[in-house]
Design brief:
Layout lengths: L1 H9 L1 H18 L17 H14 L4 E7 L6 H15 L4 E5 L5 E6 L2 E6 L8 H13 L14 E8 L6 H15 L8 E6 H35 L2 H25 L10 H27 L2 H28 L7 H32 L21 H11 L1 H17 L19 H10 L6 E8 L9 H16 L5 E3 L1 H12 L13 H8 L4 H4 L9 E8 L4 H18 L5 E5 L1 H34 L3 H24 L11 H27 L2 H28 L7 H29 L7 H6 L4 H5 L9 H9 L2 E5 L4 E3 L9 H4 L1 E7 L2 E6 L6 E7 L4 E2 L2 H4 L8 E4 L3 E7 H10 L1 H28 L5
Antiparallel strand pairs: 1-5, 1-6, 2-5, 3-4, 7-9, 7-10, 8-9, 11-18, 12-17, 13-16, 13-18, 14-15, 14-17
Helix pairs in contact: 1-2, 1-10, 1-11, 2-8, 2-11, 6-7, 7-8, 7-9, 7-23, 8-9, 8-11, 9-10, 9-11, 9-23, 10-11, 10-20, 10-22, 12-23, 13-21, 13-24, 15-19, 20-21, 20-22, 21-22, 21-24, 22-23, 22-24, 23-24, 30-31
């Protein structure tokens, strides 16, 4: 990123032309962009499950049903039934409807004077009230029709429209719904209630809500972000920069979606708002860093260079973490989440690139020459009086352990509620309470089975196996179990036709509403049926049967539990040589719930692992990797805790919150850790560095967190419940992440010392001084750089003193316990004669030599000689605190260093022993 910004700064015209060219190519792709309001994306992406479903549809027909619900107190009167008949006739002519199932089209089986009569329930529209009443009685007497096409009260009827499941054109469902509404509209006032409900209708409603969301949410997000940035930057010009980078990013995203064929759906429609909100955070950091550069350097050009040097690597890492956070969503096997993860990660990959290309150009043209007077920087912070931030910082510093324990304890208590979170992936749950969809669904289910369907496909493996009454009895037992339970509303199978015919063949005796006893009788009864009656319930050679199930379990959790119980019972009732599967669009959606949970776990653990590796590499310490995880795990724990407390399910919306929270929260964590590292270079005191770090970053992190929280909060105005939940949870989690970054992160950092990879790479040491130093013996260059960076590099001019003989640095404990490693120049060691004050040389130090180490080994010792620079010098000052930090962070390096120091001390003792021996001091 640093090189990209430098390129833009040095060659603005070339950069501008590249941006224009790519944007034009993206714009040319936009006409191919598709809108997909379907619910298919909620399904699992498991190919085996999809193949099972497709095979079932090809064998037994579509499970997609649109239902026309009609209610009226005088429904079974000639004039009302005439209107229904005309409506049914019109519905049959609509393209895409495979079958219309109604009172006027369904076959009935009725005993008449000892003979079985088959045919339509009625051959004509009743002309008298008596005929209408007889039609109602006949319908109620048929268990296949009763409760399915006519209500028990006789005041409601349903017309079931089986829709072509193969048509994947999104416009098909819109046209179908509007065509049905066009037929309903003329008779709307003729009935107490009439409406359509079902899969095609839901798709239409979703497409309309998507358009509404796009019209309302995106402009609102832009407005909220713009106002927040104006407040933060106090500049309309600076607030316009994120708008420019975001709009360019959205254009590129649209082109990419059109090129890859990924449509705008209920989740990808959110990406423009997310890019606007999330992408703006780095713009804010760049703008504020630029202002500090203007304050320090004084000119635009130098300020831009300052910004690039300060932020280049940081933006690279934060962008990478956010990109990986969204990309990890692709691990989910739910199609719609996979598509969202792919497009969102692409958007948050190109957005930083666009930001790095546009920002230098924009600041050259519109950047301010004045810095804000109250800008807080790590080096320049010197407030005239304490403000509330200073009191906050002092409180945190004074009660670090209590604050940390309290924060973690509260997180643990809230997080425990996360075990109450339930899975949810039902498309009905997408709609808000009180929405027209739920109102219609409540009306339907008060009289009829729920609109949700699935198949139980049972395979016997042999031709005609399900013409055997013994095998059919097992199907009857399964249906009986389901009828006696409270989970499923209606089941229909081949058994229902055979038992009905058997009853009617026995003069309508209710006791004979059972299966025939012999294969011959089954074959006889099947002759009375037509293919259109039973082909939804048995395949051509009677080796497979299908139980069609209708229900109103609009909770994936409840449906999964009910299916689990049903599966156990089927295994008890069914021949062990038979096989069975649950399949259908409803089942694929249910399996998507498991995929959401599995993908959520994978995404979170992968993201945390990536953060751990990145931070460990960046700060060259595994401890830094672990420390960085804590403030990023806390928002996740709080998120699940809040979901458990308020019974918010894990669905396609809320499944994104945790991973996104980690990806975004780690940005501020990295900014804090980097700032802390910079402050440590200045003050060499961990507590003071922590205080200055909080003061420096508080306003910036607060501004970006508030902007993110408000931006996500806008999603509460969405028409989709999962998106509302996603927005509200994200808004809360952003604030929790903010608290973690200003409380937990600094407290944890105050117990360690960080070094960044770019510190090590940028540190230049004279190789000859290093190679000839016994102090660095057996140490690699990167280990030596760590030692130097944990200490302090000092330069002095010729003639300046380093320390004095017998001098006690008691007022400066750091210097009183310091030793020195000479990097450049020469140093003389000497005594002063007490009587003449003449300097008596006792030694010289050249690059690579270490001296003054007794002060580190013995706290109570005083300096035994004076040291003065013979030329301009550079040396490393290593104090006891630096060595203690080295021991904590890199004990293996510390061990080698002390071994080398012992070797140097031993060599010195040998030398002094020789001198004393020559002088007769030792015998």
């Amino acid at each position: 990123m640093q090189k990209l910004m430098l390129l833009s700064h040095r060659h603005p015209l070339v950069t501008f032309l590249v941006l224009i060219c790519i944007s034009l190519v993206a714009a040319m792709q936009l006409p191919r962009l598709k809108i997909d309001p379907s619910l298919d994306g909620l399904r699992t992406g498991d190919k085996a499950a999809k193949n099972r479903y497709q095979d079932a549809v090809e064998t037994f027909g579509s499970d997609k049903i649109n239902i026309i619900y009609i209610k009226d107190p005088r429904l079974f009167s000639p004039e009302k039934l005439l209107l229904v008949d005309e409506l049914v006739y019109g519905l049959g002519n609509i393209s895409g409807i495979l079958k219309v199932e109604s009172l006027f089209s369904t076959n009935n089986f009725k005993n008449s004077e000892g003979a079985l009569v088959t045919g339509p329930l009625t051959g004509w529209v009743p002309e008298t009230k008596e005929e209408a009443g007889q039609l109602l009685d006949n319908a109620r007497a048929n268990p296949i029709i009763n409760g399915n096409l006519v209500s028990e009260s006789g005041q409601s009827i349903a017309v079931n429209l089986f829709v072509d499941a193969k048509d994947q054109n999104p416009n098909f469902y819109r046209k179908l719904t509007l065509d049905i509404d066009q037929l309903i509209e003329p008779v709307q006032g003729q009935f107490q209630e009439i409406f359509q409900i079902g899969d095609p209708y839901l798709r239409y409603e979703i497409s309309e809500m998507m358009l509404t969301d796009q019209k309302n949410i995106t402009p609102f997000s832009i407005l909220i972000l713009f106002l927040t940035l104006v407040v933060v930057t106090r500049s309309l010009g600076c607030a316009a920069l994120p708008m420019l980078t975001s709009s360019t990013s959205i254009l590129w995203i649209g082109g990419f979606m059109a090129y890859t064929g990924i449509p705008v759906n209920i989740l990808t429609v959110l990406i423009p708002s997310l890019v606007i909100v999330i992408g703006s955070t780095e713009d804010v950091h760049l703008l504020l860093e630029y202002e500090e550069g203007v304050h320090v350097k004084g000119t635009k050009s130098l300020a831009i260079d300052w910004m690039i040097n300060k932020m280049g690597v940081v933006i690279l890492v934060t962008s990478l973490s956010t990109f990986l956070g969204f990309l990890s969503i692709c691990l989910n096997n739910v199609i719609i989440l996979k598509q969202f993860g792919m497009i969102a990660s692409f958007g948050l990959f190109v957005n930083p690139l666009i930001t790095c290309m546009i920002t230098p150009i924009y600041l050259r043209l519109f950047g301010s020459n004045k810095s804000r007077q109250n800008k807080v920087s790590g080096q320049a912070y010197n407030p005239p009086q304490k403000n509330w931030i200073d009191f906050f910082v002092d409180f945190i510093a004074a009660h670090k352990k209590k604050v940390l324990i309290g924060f973690l304890g509260l997180t643990l208590v809230i997080g425990l509620f996360g075990f109450r979170v339930k899975l949810e992936n039902d498309y009905v749950a997408m709609f808000k309470k009180g929405s027209p969809v739920l109102t219609r669904l409540d009306a339907l289910t008060s009289d009829f089975p729920g609109m949700q369907t699935f198949f139980i496909r049972i395979s016997g493996g042999h031709k005609d196996i399900f013409k055997d009454p013994e095998n059919l009895e097992q199907i009857a037992d399964i249906q009986s179990y389901m009828r006696n339970g409270n989970s499923f509303d209606k089941t229909i199978s081949l058994v229902d036709f055979l038992t009905l015919i058997h009853r009617e063949m026995n003069q309508g005796d209710p006791e004979m509403h059972i299966l025939p006893a012999t294969k011959e009788r089954v074959a006889q009864y099947l002759a009375f049926t037509e293919d259109d009656d039973i082909n939804r319930y048995v395949n051509g050679d009677f080796s497979d049967v299908n139980i069609m199930v209708r229900h109103n379990l609009n909770s994936s959790h409840d449906l999964k539990k009910a299916l689990g119980d049903l599966e156990k019972q089927i295994r008890l009732l069914l021949n062990p040589h038979f096989t069975f599967v649950f399949t259908g669009d409803n089942i694929l959606t249910l399996e998507g719930a498991d995929a959401i949970a599995d993908g959520q776990a994978k995404s979170i653990f992968l993201m945390l692992f990536i953060i751990f590796i990145l931070m460990s590499i960046i700060f060259t310490n595994i401890k830094a990797g672990f420390l960085s995880l804590v403030p990023n795990i806390i928002p996740v724990a709080v998120n699940f805790g809040i979901m458990g407390i308020f019974s918010i399910p894990l669905n396609v919306g809320t499944a994104m919150v945790s991973v996104i929270a980690i990806g975004i929260a780690v940005d501020d964590t990295l900014h804090f850790m980097t700032r802390y590292n910079d402050e440590m270079h200045q003050v060499k005191n961990q507590d003071e560095a922590m205080k200055r770090c909080i003061r420096s970053e508080f306003k910036v992190v607060a501004a970006t967190s508030i902007a993110l929280s408000l931006g996500f909060g806008v999603l509460a105005f969405s028409q989709f419940m999962p998106i509302v939940q996603f927005g509200m949870l994200s808004a809360i989690v952003m604030l929790v992440a903010f608290l973690c970054d200003i409380i937990v992160t600094p407290v944890l950092l105050s117990s360690t010392r960080l070094l960044t990879m770019w510190d090590i790479l940028s540190l230049k040491l004279r190789r000859e001084a290093i190679e000839q130093s016994e102090f660095f013996r057996d140490l690699k260059m990167w280990q030596i750089k760590k030692i130097v960076l944990l200490s302090r590099i000092v330069t002095k001019l010729k003639g300046e003193m380093i320390y004095r003989e017998n001098e006690n640095w008691g007022t400066d404990e750091e210097r009183s316990q310091s030793m020195y490693l000479l990097l450049e120049g020469n140093v003389r060691r000497y005594h002063l004669q007490s009587d003449t004050g003449k300097e008596v040389p006792v030694g010289f130090y050249s690059p690579g030599d270490v001296f003054g180490y007794i002060a580190v080994l013995d706290n109570n010792s005083s300096r035994s000689a004076n040291t003065k620079a013979l030329s301009d010098i550079k040396y490393v000052e290593i104090n006891k605190e630096s060595l203690d930090r080295l021991n904590k962070m890199y004990p293996h390096i510390w061990g080698k260093l002390y071994r080398n120091l012992a070797r140097i001390l031993g060599d010195q003792l040998v030398v002094w022993q020789g001198i004393f021996s020559e002088r007769g001091g030792l015998k």
